[in-house]
Design a protein that fits this description.
The chain has 281 residues and is α/β, with parallel strands linked by helices. The chain has one domain: Alpha/Beta hydrolase fold, catalytic domain (Rossmann fold). The chain contains 11 helices and 10 strands. α3 runs antiparallel to α11 and α5 crosses α6. The longest helix is centred in the middle third of the chain and has 21 residues. The protein is globular.
């Protein structure tokens, strides 16, 4: 059982980086690559591009993993942010920030759900593509200098979508997505040649968007996180639906009515800390 408690608060969903890092010194050897990716994706919500104390908070958290070659990236036009770092356990890692609810540009990116042709093959979400293209050239020199072995890409929500595009654009070792929406069609998915770990926390509504159609499929097999926070890779569709139904009923009775909580489990499960809790020992 995870030592991190489930967090149903609005704060965890809307301001995910307020909570202090869960990394401790020595975690670079104790944690799995995907656990590190999940917490790094949550920390990407720190506004390192504009707030010096938050920038320092991120650097201090990464220092607990013996990080080096840290660099941040920001495209003001699309309001897309990412950072890159080399970690002993992971190697080169590029982390993309997800949707910030108070940023109109992020919401606009999410809503541009028409598709466009993708250079590596297939078609992808137009808004996600615009965000990635806006920051791609800033990241390229870092990859040229630090991307051997090939990097890992990760992110939460919109950040997971951007990481998925990065895994198609650049050679990579691993793609770890946390609460990812669908990004493109089957031909686009076929352009991703690395190992993919796609984490879905129980009822997380974002993982169902955009709806599955010939234009939108998920990259990689789902690693399901059940209502108790346990990883269940390979869970059957019947088991998943049964677990989700129980989760919604329990949430309604125990958490939905508490002041300060998210009203429905489908949104609460999207909070990054509820992914981190499942991956931390």
């Amino acid at each position: 059982m995870t030592a991190i408690a489930y967090d149903a608060s609005r704060l965890a969903l809307l301001q995910p980086a307020v909570r202090p890092t869960v990394f401790i010194a020595g975690d670079e050897t104790r944690l799995s690559v995907d656990a590190i990716c999940a917490e790094c994706a949550r920390l990407a919500y720190l506004r390192f591009e504009s707030d010096q104390p938050q920038r320092q908070k991120l650097q201090d958290a990464l220092a607990r993993l013996s990080a080096n070659a840290w660099q941040d990236f920001c495209d003001p036009k699309t309001d897309t942010q990412a950072y890159a770092v080399v970690l002993p356990q992971v190697g080169p890692l590029v982390v993309f920030r997800g949707t910030e609810p108070d940023r109109v540009t992020d919401l606009g990116t999410d809503l541009k759900a028409t598709t466009r042709a993708w250079a590596k093959g297939g078609r992808v979400h137009n808004g996600f593509a615009e965000g990635f293209i806006g920051i791609r050239d800033a990241i390229q020199p870092w990859i040229d200098s630090n991307g051997a072995p090939a990097p890992t890409f990760t992110g939460h929500s919109l950040g997971a979508a951007l990481a998925t595009l990065a895994a198609s654009h650049w050679a990579c070792t691993r793609l770890t997505t946390i609460g990812s929406p669908r990004v493109g069609d089957r031909y686009f998915i076929g352009s991703i040649k690395c190992t993919v770990a796609r984490y879905v926390d129980c009822c997380d509504i974002v993982t169902h968007l955009p709806p599955e159609t010939p234009w939108y499929e998920h990259a990689g097999s789902m690693v399901y996180i059940d209502r108790r926070g346990s990883l269940r890779p390979g869970a059957s569709a019947t088991d998943v639906e049964s677990d989700r139904a129980a989760a919604r009923a329990e949430y309604l009775l125990r958490m939905a009515w508490i002041d300060g909580n998210v009203p429905v489990r489908d949104l609460a499960d999207h909070a990054p800390i509820n992914y981190v809790r499942a991956l931390f020992p």
